[in-house]
Design goal:
The complex is a heterodimer of chains A (417) and B (155).
Chain A: H1 2-21, H2 24-52, E1 65-80, E2 85-101, E3 106-117, E4 120-121, E5 134-135, E6 144-157, E7 160-168, H3 173-177, E8 204-216, E9 221-232, E10 235-249, E11 254-265, H4 270-276, E12 292-305, E13 308-318, E14 325-337, E15 340-350, E16 353-360, E17 363-369, E18 372-385, E19 388-398, E20 405-416
Antiparallel strand pairs in A: 1-2, 1-20, 2-3, 3-6, 4-5, 6-7, 7-8, 8-9, 9-10, 10-11, 11-12, 12-13, 13-14, 14-15, 15-18, 16-17, 18-19, 19-20
Chain B: H1 2-16, E1 34-39, H2 48-59, E2 73-77, H3 82-92, H4 96-110, E3 116-118, H5 121-130, E4 134-139, H6 140-145, E5 149-154
Parallel strand pairs in B: 2-3, 2-4
Antiparallel strand pairs in B: 1-4, 1-5
Classes of the chains: A mainly beta (417), B alpha/beta (155).
């Protein structure tokens, strides 16, 4: 027992001497380090609590991640036509973006949307001298719905991705991006102006799309491919298909793409042909009266370098028994300030030919040119913050089948999250 | 209308001479201060400009996989931090506004979202050390002292 006590006393006596043997500077440094870590953790915890507070956190049932976004866009116009000037509302739309990653390979993406639309009739041929321009009417309490994207995706790798459902077509520079808040000019170019419609090439379809990216050489340049097959809203039993092959010059921010597609444009019944006149001249009717098979080829160029964005596309379609369509669009945007861009766009669109009504009794139609339209647009867009875009666009439009021109000023805004 | 367009152009040109975010400067020979780090088991062999080009594509989500086929996971830093500004200018070669426009654009194509932001070097290193496919940017000093990660390139 005395021996044990003696050993304990010796051990206790050694503790202070061990502590004194440590470098005080090292202890201070370690202490300081620990304090800074605790400070960091408290800071992070405070930020997290500030974001969440006592609110419930949204959870998905089985998805690994769930992203929700969307936008609200409105467009108003002032039109100076051949008879009068009109100012009014054209379109307001709200669209939600929903993306869920289910596992490493499977995901889904859907964009349910709602809109109210007042068709701006630039030059109504049924009222050649009076009444232009004018607006169609709508009822905001009965907003229409649209579904531009709703697909499931399986991704084997960057080389091979399959989408099925309502998918976007890969054609055209602006159509490929689709998202309205990303546009520097509010209205789409002439050959894609009718929202989601197939004027020359399809903007979206119900079917499947395969795409991929291949790194070339040292990995700077890439090859992108897209192919799709499906049907369209107005013709669920007629197949359409197409492909796009693009070379991406990584260092230059430039991509050049070749496009091909084919399909069928569904014709309209006599009653529909008559109503197709009512939503005309934006500047073309939204649909074709005469059904036909078509094939098209086209080239897209997209160049993004510093404060400049240049987008160009040229397309040509063969429309079986009707005249060919030709379209050219060139758009340049210069961000003169991080928040402010000046844009110019030139559009040329020869819409080929179609059936027109020459007699109601008996109901008779003949083929006639739909005409050629050109448009110059000068636009300003201002981003007070990255999620808000305000646009002011001046359009000078030379209308088809007439020597008339119309000028209109569009004011639009998009708020996205 | 053309008068209005001319006035607008003059107005905009005037603004262009005003405050503008400086374009990314070309790389100048100076000691590297930052590093892109990957997990210590990451088998990527790219070095130098090839590594920068690959990281740029992965960060911007133009590509989603490392060359060996594994899914890449990027960690960003606070947009206002020095380390993120250096990465944006020297690796991505973009201004802050360009980067914001990029994310706005790709969101529409398939719902792609920007990489998650991590606030401190220590947390980036923690994430990268835990995830074999992750990468992030930290100060060179922090990278050299860390375990479980390796420096893919310095800048």
């Amino acid at each position: 027992m005395p021996k044990t006590i003696a050993l304990t006393v010796c051990a206790l006596a050694a503790v202070p001497s061990l502590a004194l043997a440590q470098d005080p500077d090292a202890v201070q440094k370690a202490l300081q380090d620990l304090r800074s870590r605790v400070e960091e953790l408290e800071e992070q915890q405070a930020r997290t609590a500030e974001r969440l507070g006592s609110r419930a956190v949204v959870q998905s049932y089985t998805a690994r991640s769930l992203d929700l976004g969307g936008h609200v866009t409105s467009l108003f116009t002032h039109m100076r036509g051949e008879n009068d000037s009109e100012t009014g509302h054209v379109v307001s739309l709200a669209e939600l973006f929903l993306r869920a990653q289910i596992d490493d390979h499977w995901s889904l993406f859907a964009t349910p949307g709602f809109y109210t639309f007042h068709g701006a009739l630039l030059d109504d041929p049924t009222t050649p001298t009076t009444g232009d321009p004018s607006f169609t009417t709508a009822d905001t309490s009965q907003a229409d719905t649209f579904l531009s994207r709703a697909y499931g995706e399986w991704k084997a790798s960057d080389l091979f991705v399959v989408q099925g459902g309502i998918v976007g077509s890969p054609h055209g520079t602006t159509n490929r991006e689709y998202f309205i808040p990303a546009r520097t000019i509010g209205q789409a170019n002439l050959h894609t102006r009718v929202f989601l419609a197939n004027q020359l090439y399809p903007q979206h379809l119900a079917g499947a799309r395969v795409s991929g990216k291949i790194r070339l050489g040292d990995g700077v340049d890439m090859l992108e491919y897209d192919a799709y097959f499906g049907t369209e809203d107005d013709s669920p039993s007629d197949g359409i298909g197409g492909a796009r092959l693009a070379y991406v010059f990584g260092d230059l921010g430039l991509s050049v793409a070749a496009n091909y597609g084919r399909g069928t444009r569904e014709g309209l019944s006599p009653a529909e042909i008559l109503t197709n006149v009512g939503v005309l001249q934006s500047p073309f009717p939204s649909r074709f009266n005469g059904g036909r098979d078509y094939e098209f080829v086209g080239i897209d160029v997209d160049w993004r370098r510093g404060n400049f964005i240049v987008k160009a596309e040229a397309y040509l379609s063969a429309e079986s028994q009707f005249d060919d369509q030709r379209a050219l669009s060139l758009e340049c945007s210069w961000f003169v300030h991080p928040e402010l861009a000046l844009s110019y766009r030139f559009d040329y669109y020869d819409s080929g030919s179609d059936l027109v009504v020459v007699s109601l009794t008996p109901f008779t139609t003949v083929e006639a040119p739909r005409g050629l339209c050109t448009e110059h647009v000068v636009g300003l867009c201002y981003d007070p913050c990255p999620s808000v875009r305000l646009r002011l666009d001046l359009h000078h439009n030379e209308l088809p089948n007439t020597s008339d021109t119309v000028d209109y000023l569009n004011l639009s805004w998009s708020l996205s999250f | 209308m053309w008068k209005l367009a001319t006035i607008a152009a003059v107005f905009v040109t005037g603004l262009a001479q005003g405050k503008e975010e400086p374009a990314p400067k070309p790389p100048t020979p100076r000691p590297a201060q930052h590093a892109v780090v990957v997990h210590v088991d990451n088998k990527t062999k790219e070095v130098g400009d090839a590594a920068k080009s690959l990281v740029k594509k992965l960060f911007l989500k133009d590509l989603s996989e490392w060359p060996d086929g594994s899914e890449a996971k990027a960690y960003a830093r606070d947009g206002k931090s020095d380390v993120q500004a250096a990465f944006r200018q020297q690796v991505l070669g973009m201004t802050e506004a360009e980067l914001a426009r990029h994310w706005l654009r790709v969101k529409s194509i398939n719902g792609t979202t920007p990489p998650k932001e991590v606030e401190t070097d220590r947390m980036v290193l923690k994430h990268v050390a835990r995830n074999p496919n992750a990468f992030g940017v930290v100060t060179l000093e922090a990278a050299k002292a860390a375990e479980g990660v390796r420096v893919l390139f310095e800048f």
